[in-house]
Prior knowledge:
The complex is a heterodimer.
Chain A lengths: L3 E4 L2 E4 L5 E7 L5 E7 L5 E9 L2 E4 L6 E3 L9 E3 L8 E8 L8 E2 L3 E5 L1
Parallel strand pairs in A: 2-11
Antiparallel strand pairs in A: 1-3, 3-8, 4-5, 4-9, 5-6, 7-8, 9-10, 9-11
Chain B lengths: L8 E5 L4 E6 L7 E8 L6 E6 L4 E2 L4 E4 L5 E6 L8 E9 L15 E6 L1
Parallel strand pairs in B: 1-9
Antiparallel strand pairs in B: 2-7, 3-4, 3-8, 5-6, 6-7, 8-9
Amino acid sequence: xxxxxxxxxxxxxxxxxxxxxxxxxxxxxxxxxxxxxxxxxxxxxxxxxxxxxxxxxxxxxxxxxxxxxxxxxxxxxxxxxxxxxxxxxxxxxxxxxxxxxxxxxxxxxxxxx
Amino acid sequence: xxxxxxxxxxxxxxxxxxxxxxxxxxxxxxxxxxxxxxxxxxxxxxxxxxxxxxxxxxxxxxxxxxxxxxxxxxxxxxxxxxxxxxxxxxxxxxxxxxxxxxxxxxxxxxxxxx
Lengths: 113, 114
């Protein structure tokens, strides 16, 4: 089945450690996105990528980094510089760029202890 | 992007139609209306979108008023699995450096009862 996978579903890390969240899609979509959701709040865009080897900062990129070496994969690293990393992280993709419909993965809940 | 206003919560009996309203009085001519829903602890699910004509797919129907200032999402036969937060989003593409960002508001909590 085609879709977006994120792993793991739950992730725990100690404060000060970097952690990488996985996002893979087999939909052959060009664009991919990372959002963050905090309790009772809407989604905030962290990074996005329209094509391989290119990505742009979203609204809250500080403390995060990404790479886009393959079309199918868009991993997100939460660094120790991110002051409030505990959140629900959502990856999305769209077929042919930013104006297309975005489809979301199941999300990863990160808890930093 | 235009701001949307939705009721905080709604109830619906299982098997009945659920009609979820959304006001977007400041929408401009090139802005689409999108609907997503999010079940607790899951990623948002795309439902439907439209510009000015009514739209229907296997999940729902979208009715947009002629002046485009409001719309209604219709789930024709609600089931318990339709209990979720439903988000109405207005999304534009005109010029600038729009990168397709989705702006989710508070949404409507729809509870489907047996």
